[in-house]
DNA sequence: GTTTTAGGTTGCAACTAAAAACTCAATTGC
DNA sequence: GCAATTGAGTTTTTAGTTGCAACCTAAAAC
């Protein structure tokens, strides 16, 4: 338990992807993450809702806790129950998850996803997740290039 | 070969995620996609750069072609060679891949990714991938809610 | 015409996932 | 107070995947 994608180390440069995949690259990880974003907090809830095998769910939850994506916290009112809840690190996976989901929706078998992620303020659906330039323009692949770090013109980035 | 994540079907609503994961949920898929975005086109190039087993690479490339993410095209000049190149469907995975990579970079072992994805126009790095409201505001998890499709106020969306 | 190169297969060992049954403590019903 | 139920896991068994190494085939190079 704990190696998984070590050999992915580099395939043309250093990259955060292998690290991300080490945490989230297993079969059910994203589905569990989505369940967490949907407000499911307990083992049995998730098991019932996802239909995942119990041992795998236990293993994945353990791993997500180990990587700091979920927090494991016994409930005070019913001490059999354990709450899994998203940490800040877990919450910051939302753009990746939504991007994936939108892609699946766009190219999938037609059906729109439900429920829809909406701005709390006006209850309108969020935009499609895209790549944006510093000035805010949305960019497609043909608008982009890879630049070596050493060649970056520093400019108080981010 | 070919079922993988069929049971993921629904875990609290319809969702594009399972479809996305069916295409991209396997261990090496995202690494191969990244290789493709980095300009690698041939089997041997990818094999050498990723260090993946040949049978798995063959299998994954086959699957990525089957799902329409890559196109397989024999080279006219050297007919042993085969070019794998991104389709529009594959290109549209870029936001998901970059979101994942940025997450890994942010929470990973420190090292910045290299090379950096930049706006071709000014060679400045792209922004962090985020969720945006219709009016363009960047939103975090606590600014968002799930809304059932039936409750959406239609307004000539997107 | 032998050697090399590109892109794969095949066979087999090691690992990982799934389903179902089992554990074990906390809680509820009576 | 005691049996039944529930929550959160383990264990066991079976099935499917991954990875390595070796092999194969056609096209190109020499």
Summarize the structure.
The first copy, chain A, has 158 residues and is α+β, with helices and mostly antiparallel strands.
Largest sheet of chain A: 2 strands, antiparallel
Over the alpha carbons, how many angstroms does the gyration radius of chain A reach? Answer: 19 Å
Q: Hey, roughly how much beta strand do the residues of chain A contain?
A: 5-15%
Name the chain pair whose interface involves the most residues. Answer: A-B, 97 and 97 residues
CATH superfamily membership of the largest domain in chain A, which one?
Winged helix-like DNA-binding domain superfamily/Winged helix DNA-binding domain
Structural class of chain A: alpha+beta
How would you sum up this structure, described in words?
2 copies of one chain form a homodimer. Chain A has 158 residues and is an alpha+beta fold. Chain A has 2 domains: 15-90, Arc Repressor Mutant, subunit A (Orthogonal Bundle); 93-132, no CATH class. The first copy, chain A, is 35% helix and 14% strand. Chain A has helices at residues 17-24, 29-37, 43-50, 54-66, 88-91, 94-107, and strands spanning 70-74, 82-86, 116-119, 131-132, 138-139, 144-147. Chain A has a two-stranded antiparallel ribbon with strand order 1-2. A two-stranded antiparallel ribbon of chain A has the order 4-5. In chain A, strand 4 (131-132) and strand 5 form a beta hairpin. The two termini of chain A are 36 Å apart. The relative contact order of chain A is 0.09. Chains A and B meet through helix 1, helix 2, helix 3, helix 6 and strand 3 of A and helix 1, helix 2, helix 3, helix 6 and strand 3 of B. Strand 3 of chain A pairs antiparallel with strand 6 of chain B. The structure holds a DNA duplex (30 and 30 nucleotides).
């Amino acid at each position: 338990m704990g190696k998984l994608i070590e050999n992915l180390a580099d395939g043309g440069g250093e990259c955060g992807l292998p690290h991300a995949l080490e945490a989230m690259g297993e079969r059910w990880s994203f589905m569990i993450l989505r369940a967490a974003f949907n407000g499911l907090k307990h083992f049995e809830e998730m098991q019932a809702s996802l239909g995942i095998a119990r041992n795998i769910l236990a293993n994945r939850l353990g791993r997500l806790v180990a990587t700091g994506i979920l927090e494991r916290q016994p409930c005070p009112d019913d001490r059999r129950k354990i709450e899994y809840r998203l940490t800040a690190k877990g919450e910051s996976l939302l753009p990746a998850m939504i991007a994936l989901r939108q892609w699946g929706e766009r190219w999938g078998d037609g059906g729109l996803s439900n429920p829809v992620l909406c701005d709390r303020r006006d209850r309108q659906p969020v935009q499609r997740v895209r790549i944006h330039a510093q000035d805010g323009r949305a960019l497609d692949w043909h608008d982009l290039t890879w630049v070596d770090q050493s060649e970056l013109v520093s400019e108080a980035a981010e």
